[in-house]
Amino acid sequence: KLTGGVLVSRNKEYIIFYRGNDFVTPKVRKVLVEQQQHAITQQEQEELARLKASASITAIPKALKNPLVAGTLAETREATSRWGDSLNDELRKKENNRLILAKHTSLLKNMKRKLILAKTKVAKAEMALAKVQEYLSPAELPTDLETVTDEERFLFRRIGLKMKAFLMLGTTETFHIKVAM
Which is an annotated GO molecular function term of this record (predicted)? Predict the structure, then answer.
């Protein structure tokens, strides 16, 4: 039973605990101290390398020669002289109406395109349905069959298509042969 200690290393085969100087041989103690010092120096070197890299990246901002004018009256006047006066209410309403009209025309074009695609799909489906119905229609029969109506013939055909391809008449006791007609 282990009491106390610090986990030093662990892998698939070994778990190493450090339980203080009392339980470690002098050779192991020396190796542990060297490893600890090596880890500390490596961390310090990495930290120095990071500091050098970050110092080379950060740029010193240049001193501004002109005073800042963002959001001032002078900047506003310069912008209006360069870009013209702002829109009045009437022009703003016209622009909004134009944008709404453009949005609706775009929506209408998309709906027309979707309608055309849907119509082509419906036409293809109708053609496929016509082929299936043509396949299901009974073959030409002689005209002397007056006792069976078209509706009965259609029902008998559907029943016949649902039936198996053979009719079991019986089995022999030893072979269990199925006889097809």
Answer: mRNA binding
In a domain, 46, yes or no: yes
Q: How many domains does the chain have?
A: 1
Q: How confident is the model at residue 143, as a pLDDT?
A: 64
**Contacts (Cβ under 8 Å, ≥6 apart) of 20:** 4, 5
> In this structure, is residue 44 part of a structural domain?
yes
Cβ proximity of 6 and 18 under 8 Å = yes
CA distance 97 to 109: 18
User: 37: domain range?
Assistant: 6-56
pTM of the model: 0.30
Instruction: State yes or no: pLDDT of 107 exceeds 90.
Output: yes
| pLDDT digit string, tens, across residues 16-26 | 777 766 666 77
